[in-house]
TrEMBL record:
<protein>
    <submittedName>
        <fullName>Uncharacterized protein</fullName>
    </submittedName>
</protein>
Amino acid sequence: MDYGFRSRNGQNFFQIDSDNKVLNVAASGSYAIGKTPTSSTTITTAVITYPTPITTTEAPHVFLNPNNHGMYHTLMQMGGPGNWTGFYFKLHLMAPFNSTDCSGRWLVATFRSTSPPNEYDLRLRNASNEQVFVGADNLLVMTGFPINEGWTLDNRGGEVSGIYWSGYQMPWTGSYEDYFLASTLLGGKIYNGNTTLDTPCGFHAGVRATLNGYVGAMVSSEGGTAKNGRTTFAARPMRPL
C-alpha cells in the first residue's frame, strides 16, 4: 500500500486502502417489468437512466433484486467510458414470468468514492489524488462469496417456441435483502456447443435459498450440456437506500 489507511479484520482480511478498493453505491431505484398492476400488456424490457452520468472509465457494477420473482437476460450498459448513462435488461418470456409482475430494485456501484465528507470524517485518496473512500459512502457488503461454477441442474425447464430450456440453480443466501451482481451474470449470450442463446437468471417466487437460471438449446438432446459460467455474488448496501 502506498496511500490510505490499512487495517485487518478478525479473519485477517485487508480492509480499505488505495489498493484494496471498496464498492460504493452510486445510484439506486426501482424497475417495472412483466405484467405489472399498472400495465395492460407485459413489459418485456426495463430501461434505467441514471440521475446523472457516472464518469468512471470502467463500466459500473449493476445489481438487481426482484421484489418476489423475476428471470432476466441481456443486460446492456448505456453510454461509454467516462459517461455511463444507464442500462437495460430483458424479461425471460417463459411461464410464469411472462404473465406476472417481475419488478424489483436496482443499484449501481463503482470503485470511486463520490460522497461529500461529513463534518467529521475519514477521507482517503490515491496517488492521483482521487478520493477512494470517505466515511459518508454507502458501501456494498458482500453477503455471499463470488461463484462462477456453482450451478447444478434442477427439475425446472421446458420447451418454448422451439427452444429447450434446461434449469440450473446455485446456493443463495435466503434473504430478500440481497442483490445479485447482474452486469456480469446477464451480460450476454453463451455458446452451448451448437448454438448461441440467452442465459436468463433470477429468482422463482418465494425462493431465496437458490439463485436460478436457464440455458437454451435448439434441440432437446443438447439440454443440460452447458452452464452459465459467469461470476456473480450477493451483496447489500451498508445503509438503507
